[in-house]
Amino acid sequence: MIILENVTKEYTSGTPALNGIDLRIEKGEFVFVVGNSGSGKSTLIKLLLKELDATSGKIYVNKKYLNKITRKRLPSLRRDIGVVFQDFRLLPDRNVYDNIAFAMKVVEAPSRIIRGRVLAMLSMVGLLDKYKSFPNELSGGEQQRVAIARALVNEPSILLCDEPTGNLDPENSWEIMKILDEINKRGTTVLVVTHNMEIVQAMKKRTITMNNGKIISDVEKGGYFYED
Ligand SMILES: Nc1ncnc2c1ncn2[C@@H]1O[C@H](COP(=O)(O)OP(=O)(O)O)[C@@H](O)[C@H]1O
Ligand SMILES: [Mg+2]
């Protein structure tokens, strides 16, 4: 599903943001990525979306070889990857329903299909009753749940989350992680960058630790690694 072979990314010459990364994530996995600020976590996500190109090395996502993918095929790659960010990135002048539907209109789905999908997503994140609300009328946790619904509306096979609970209190953080776990149980491959070690310890998922652009550990059940 996701393969990196000896991937290096240098923004400017000097210390690379990613330095010789080898990584393999299978279909259906749930993976945490942890590590200090500046260790290369967001860069990894940008490479998977092909927002950036690797300086060297090979990247495959869903059997697509990203080094060689044409501009024309980029939308098809991006449709198959949902993304969630720390700062939600909702459209402030659209209500919840339209924020989610907007992601589908981009791919020109018929309105009846859009309605069914949007409502299914809202139900999954527990926000059916808020479909008319605007982002500024929602709590941070609710806004992030809308962002997750939007990320999933085109049924991507992969969901990438870059510090999705970075702006949330512990209770809302847990709520978001439980939703991500449920999404994974329904078959989506989920990769979550986080600093929330309490949650990483408790959820016991595969956990990759990065430092200075390298993977310094990759353990099957995060909780055991961080326990004394
Ligand atoms: N657009 C950029 N231009 C130059 N350097 C960058 C850019 N984005 C990130 N970096 C550098 O790359 C390294 C990794 O950054 P990043 O991937 O954002 O780390 P993390 O998400 O783990 O905090 C850092 O040293 C950062 O300063
Ligand atoms: Mg980052």
Automatic annotation (TrEMBL):
<dbReference type="InterPro" id="IPR003439">
    <property type="entry name" value="ABC_transporter-like_ATP-bd"/>
</dbReference>
<keyword id="KW-1003">Cell membrane</keyword>
<keyword id="KW-0547">Nucleotide-binding</keyword>
<comment type="function">
    <text>Part of the ABC transporter FtsEX involved in cellular division.</text>
</comment>
<dbReference type="GO" id="GO:0022857">
    <property type="term" value="F:transmembrane transporter activity"/>
</dbReference>
<keyword id="KW-0132">Cell division</keyword>
<dbReference type="InterPro" id="IPR015854">
    <property type="entry name" value="ABC_transpr_LolD-like"/>
</dbReference>
<comment type="similarity">
    <text>Belongs to the ABC transporter superfamily.</text>
</comment>
<dbReference type="GO" id="GO:0005886">
    <property type="term" value="C:plasma membrane"/>
</dbReference>
<dbReference type="InterPro" id="IPR017871">
    <property type="entry name" value="ABC_transporter-like_CS"/>
</dbReference>
<dbReference type="GO" id="GO:0005524">
    <property type="term" value="F:ATP binding"/>
</dbReference>
<dbReference type="InterPro" id="IPR003593">
    <property type="entry name" value="AAA+_ATPase"/>
</dbReference>
<dbReference type="InterPro" id="IPR005286">
    <property type="entry name" value="Cell_div_FtsE"/>
</dbReference>
<keyword id="KW-0472">Membrane</keyword>
<feature type="domain" description="ABC transporter">
    <location>
        <begin position="2"/>
        <end position="228"/>
    </location>
</feature>
<keyword id="KW-0067">ATP-binding</keyword>
<dbReference type="GO" id="GO:0016887">
    <property type="term" value="F:ATP hydrolysis activity"/>
</dbReference>
<dbReference type="GO" id="GO:0051301">
    <property type="term" value="P:cell division"/>
</dbReference>
<dbReference type="InterPro" id="IPR027417">
    <property type="entry name" value="P-loop_NTPase"/>
</dbReference>
<comment type="subunit">
    <text>Homodimer. Forms a membrane-associated complex with FtsX.</text>
</comment>
<protein>
    <recommendedName>
        <fullName>Cell division ATP-binding protein FtsE</fullName>
    </recommendedName>
</protein>
<keyword id="KW-0131">Cell cycle</keyword>
<dbReference type="Pfam" id="PF00005">
    <property type="entry name" value="ABC_tran"/>
</dbReference>
